[in-house]
Write a structure and sequence with these properties.
The chain has helices spanning 17-29, 54-59, 156-168; strands at 9-13, 38-43, 61-67, 75-80, 92-98, 104-105, 136-141, 149-154. The protein is an alpha/beta fold. A 6-stranded mixed β-sheet has the order 1-2-3-4-5-6. It has a two-stranded antiparallel sheet with strand order 7-8. A hairpin with a 5-residue loop joins strand 5 (92-98) and strand 6 (104-105). The chain is elongated, with a radius of gyration of 21 Å. This is Putative variant ionotropic glutamate receptor-like 22.
Amino acid sequence: LRQVSWCVTVVVVSDDPPFLAAFAEWSLKGRLLVWSTRLLVVTRLPLSELQHLHNLFSMTNSMLLSVGKNIPSLRCVLYAKMPFTQPNSQPLRVALWTYEEDLTFRSHIPLFPDKFSKFSHRPTFIVPMIEGGLTTSVWQESESEPGGKNLIFLGPLTRVLDYVSQGLNFS
């Protein structure tokens, strides 16, 4: 299925937490959802019951459509979970739809954002580095570091890493 569905939108509609958990597990384990596949999960479950879907929503091109249970005043909220966020963090509220209003965006994030080309919240990564032909290590004085010194690396690879970190917005 993954090989023939490399550029599609998958819609999953369910209010059954065990089904959603199984779908999330097998989608990630079986690599069903590649980067170009869009996933829309539609449910009436509250956000508190969807914490187990954190990995699915943060690691894939996914959005959650939370549909209200009250038909006369139906309200639908569209959420997105950004990569490298904490599992207990609230998803971003992207848009809102009600009977009274058309779809209104509540953030700067578009539908199915390209969340893997640039990090919106500037995560911090630890990058291992080995001193060798292209890099040299230097101890630098630093008042903010324990021991008053900080190990830095110099060379073309560190300049490339700095360039990539600025482009992708990570430190």
